[in-house]
Amino acid sequence: MPRSLLAIVLVLLVLHQDNWFWTDDTLVFGFMPMGLFYQACISVAASFAWFYAVKKCWPSAHDSEAGAGGES
To answer: How confident is the model at residue 65 (pLDDT cuts 50, 70, 90)?
Structure first.
């Protein structure tokens, strides 16, 4: 596992613990509470982290075996 991926996951893990937006009454876009918006942003960042993990850690041997088998 690349160290950069490990760092990204650890940063997301720490940022996920948001105690600072629990009492914030600010509305983002006029309807979404700040805490919910923050969690949505963390979710989007986590999806990019998983995409990066798949691109960096997926073994390339599996891709060539699937293409070589040939489907009828």
So the answer is: low
Strands in 1-72 per DSSP E: 27-28, 32-33
| Euclidean distance between CA atoms 38 and 60, whole angstroms | 35
> Are 8 and 34 spatial neighbours (Cβ–Cβ below 8 Å)?
no
Phi, psi dihedral angles at 2 (to 5 degrees): -65, 145
Domain ranges of the chain: 15-53
This prediction has a pTM of 0.72
Q: Are the beta carbons of 53 and 5 closer than 8 angstroms?
A: yes
- Which tops the pLDDT comparison, 37 or 1? 37
Is residue 57 within 8 Å of residue 1, measured between CB atoms?
yes
Inter-residue contact 8 to 52 (CB < 8 Å): yes
